[in-house]
## 1
Amino acid sequence: MTLLEPPRPREPASAASAARFALITPRMWVIAALAGTLAIFTLVIPATDLFDVPSVPPPSGLSTEGTVLAVVDEGDRDAAVGGGRFQELAVEVDGEEVAVRHEWSPGGLGPQALAPGEDVVLGYSEVDGERMYYVADHVRRVPLLFLGLALAMVVLAVGWVQGFWSLVGMAASFLVIIRYVVPGILSGADPVAVAVSGSLVIMLVTLYLAHGVSRKTTIALGGTAASLLLTAVVSGFAIEFARLSGISGEDAVTLQILSEGSIDATGLLLAAIIIGSLGVLDDVTVAQTSSVFELRRANRRLGALELYRRAMNIGRDHIASTVNTLVLAYAGVSLPLLIVLSTQAEPLEVLVNREFLATEIVRTVVGSIGIVAAVPITTALAAVVAARTRPALPARQRVEPGLDPPGTLRDRKAPGVAGAVGGDGNGVPGAGGQRLAGDEDDRVPPAEHGPAE
């Protein structure tokens, strides 16, 4: 600006603030709300006294880590004490060398023979101020870290940006479970209320992060929430009807002993079923919602009932494969149990009465009911919304502003008009210009399609 130039008027501060505020899109608001919700459940609530988590001693006693320096001696144990093998080890713990006797049975539980350089977890107890060590397990932190990095690399290589956000969503799920669900149940709160509220937060964060902020994601969220609540109701009835106590395994028994019975065992079982069903439910609901919207985009003349009918044909195939996946997942986890049961002399009609087996059956049945119910619920929601939504044109039909798309009524409005796309002068498409998919639907005014996606 020169001296002869008049000063330029400054933009009012309020207008500038409004302009900057307008740059914040609705998607940014949703992401901010998700971040705030996640912070409340993983940072604010754990920092308050809402959950009074009792101090529970570890079931296997105190532990530390060490590195095997040398194997001083090894041999067979006396058969009078059960046989097996032993090693006298020199182990470095916190910069000091200590002597540790390691005993094991070949093929049994726990670490087998150790070699110098291996990192181990040492359990210990203090007697007269002196620590007595034993080898409790291997240190597996590095292998697990490499496996986690391998998973992340595969997801990023295949999924790119969406894969990145799915990993963020997975991390958020772990945070909610570790920082909210587990402390809430340990504090004696209702396990069902904690599991349902935690699951809703996980759904909100993971679905929007992995699939973006859109109508499709919101519909999938609604279908997942409705199916999850139905699963909770059916699970509560099934547990009561089958008279399950929730104490069917060693972990449940140990937890009841350590917590002195302050945790509702049946409620804990119900919470486990709800959280276990969540991962499969969101897969089904997202797939069904996408199917409905793709059908609508392919043929914009389909109404809600026709969309529902066609999408249910896809959903039935999805049900068959997903239910089978759930059954195989539970069978894989319970494979050692199934092998043990196969060696029992009791007939099957007696074995199913055992609570450890009845619990797994209830898990599978209730989870399958939730999956099957999620398909029609989500499909109905998606069909109603998609029928009222104006789908975006495919990329090959998009035109510059001010120009008419090929195949519209303006091109075919009267017989004999020259210039009809691929026509013969009588408004009939010829071999040189095939009619694009959806041309018939261009004759429907956009207002009849409702709001855009």
## 2
Amino acid sequence: MKRPKTTVSLLCAGVLLTATAVTTGLSDPAAASTCSTTPSSRVPGVTIVDPACGFTPVDGSSLYSGILQGSAYRVEVPKNWNGSLVMFAHGYAGTGTKVAVSNPQLREFYVSQGYAWAASSYRKNGYNVGDGVQDTHDLMVHFSGITHRRAPRQTYMTGLSMGGAITAVEIERYRHQFVGAMPYCGVLGGNHLFDYFLGANATAAALTKAPLQYPQTQTAGTAYTPTFDSLIKNTVMPKLGVTTKAPGQFTTKPTKAGTQWIDAVEQLSGGTRPGFPGALQNYWNSFGFTPLTDIPFLFGLYPGLTGGTIGYANGNVADNTKTLYQLDGQPGLTDAERTLNADVLRVAATNTPTTNPARTELPDIAAKPGIPVMSLHDLGDLFVPLKMDQIYAQQATANGQGSLFVDRAIRGTGHCEFNTPELSKAFTDLVTWVHTGTPAGGDAITNPAAVADPNFGCRYTLGSHMFFGPACSTTTQSSTRSGAGAAVAVPTRAAFTG
């Protein structure tokens, strides 16, 4: 199955990421450009899209919108409010100067179940986790003042992609203010995401004997971009077996080096698992990432082109000095793996995360949630891969809090490719966990044997997801989805939410 022509825009309503156009979550994204804007009084050069534009009630709900300390906000309280509040953090929204607030995918569900929700645009765009954390919290603090209602009995934190990272930091920085959290397709591994982007490019270069460089500043990276673009098109792509079939569209018929690269990316992104080969070859490797749309997606994410940070911090955050690259999930190294590790470009980080709230550009994720956390991740997501949740799970376990983190693998290929039944079931189960103290069910994402099982992800995947590959058996689906509701097919994504 071929993917419709799509261009990718660096910014997902979450890390970096999103394709085509970032899905902002506005009631009518296509009409966002027609909404009026207001100059920011906090960040010079930034304009704020009117948050009331296109914001209409659901089932008689009460709506509140405005600008708070330089960030647009939306708040919705249902007619029969149950006293609980959900704070929603959107994903990466690019680097433009126009900020807009997003509605959560579960908006209608929240309202129907009696939950109020609130969301901030953040004061500026970019991979801006720190400001997202602060601006989301400021909005939460002002909930009663904005709505003229009592303070919520309970508050949940949720967010997608970059918003997942915001969620993880938020519940650690403001302890005892949330009862549960649900990040999804989130950057829970923090700066390890950039290690992954680096590894995908460095292994491709090593396997094709391409002389890859890693400029350490954004200015040097910009100057290096034409050379990098030529290196990928003229050396790396031909030796991997990737050809251009149309502007911004590619076909992969792997050579020996290409097969090894696919294997390396699989291990880097989460290990041997169902649906991966098709995810890389037929989907993620079939289109380009703005502005380098003439080379496949993962190459457009090379951190060496942006000083290792996409411009959001001073210094490079990517590091592979101790990374052991593998082509399979087996312990020990084969001769091919030894050669790969000897040849690969090594890069050291020059900037590290911090717990200092005064430094907003690089907040640390310690994986010490203190409250129940329910996460979801697509097995085929190669923008923010499953590895992010695996890292968080391992760190939480090392911190003695592994029982507070549950992850559900979804058999999807895109970034944040979840349907509403999958998300609403997860949120419902999170709430039950909070109220009863009994952990919700999840998948063993840190068990390589479990992840490699052909039916991994079947338990919580509701309906078919396009481009994924092998479907779950009828027996597996019926035995693991008791009471989950009807299957829902996920449509093709023209844009990723992130």
## 3
Amino acid sequence: MTGAEVAAHDAEAELLTALAKHVPEVADGQVVVKAVGRVKGWGSKVAVAATMPGVDAVGACIGERAERVRAVQQEMGGEIVQVLLWHESEEQMLAAALWPARLLGVKIDREAGKAVAYVPARECPKAIGAKGRNVRVAARLLGLRRLEIRPLERSPLVQRVAVPAGLAGAMAARGIVVRDMLRMHGSLRWGVIKASRGQMRLQVLKQVLDLLAAQAAGGELHPCELPLPAGWQPKDTQWLKHCLSGARRLGVAAVQVKKSLLRVQPREHIAELGDFLAFRWRLLHVAVHLLIALRNLGWESDYLRERFAYGVRVEVPGSGEVELAAAAALGSQLVCVAYADSEQDAGEGSPLTALREHLGAEDVAVLAVFEPVSAAVVEGWQVWGMADGVPALQRILQMGVGQP
């Protein structure tokens, strides 16, 4: 261990001692410190978690009127001590550490101990902090040797906008605070919902999204092609191009049609943002699946326009924020579809479980995973394998919300 590492270890031990002294829940084990990031003399970030149901880990450390955290700060010589809720997901943990800057994407190389975080260009100073303090403390919290902040240009696909009132009201009635949603390019959002040429356009769009997600995940830069269905017309191509025009900064360089083949050309920077793009396209992919299923069940486009959203960011009291791939308020019921890497992401103590507990018994909660799955329920979530396609999702919806 180097001298710098010894000093960092001692600084963190000093903070842990102060927490145990002023926070009884830490001393008796009801609250555990999962990670600490401290630059002595600058400030600290502490990630905590409760070991018992009903214990507010962050609230316990802050104390009534912030008395406990202020006492800790005094022992640290007046350093700012920020208490965060622990997340198993490194992306969620980093997002909390960089707040109030919004994390749009992250690429982590654990072997090298390095990461690149993408934030809106205007929010880079917030993420970095005065003299680089915030980013250095955040890096130590995540155990990184280096954390680089890079600006990501504003794009219609990552811009946050207000959630339609009908959906926001349904969430609020269940005690869920809706923050905002990712905005599809305007033509994409309403084009997907309207789909005046029926399901054919939606199916082709879904296939394009399949290709985009695969390109992003694998970092492959070659063009890809897919056959167009019989009856495809030039106006359908214009609709598709217009829908995807907002995606150019996030991976699509060109969409062309030659005879009966659709050719999609990815941009070169797609490899650099591979994980980020794969996740965003996967959310959009889930949203399109949901829209197709709802349209098949008879829900009208004008109705869905005010009650459907993609990439919805919600806050569950006491459990932090959760980003849903898609959500829709259908009559008195609410449909929430979350994308996860595995079924374990909705396990006990996870933010998804907390969200499910705030939903009504009549609501439908769907956990979308990429792999095919047999019919399963995890902590109240219906597990849907995206690879099984729209029919599998439609069967879940029929059991829950049926037809209008």
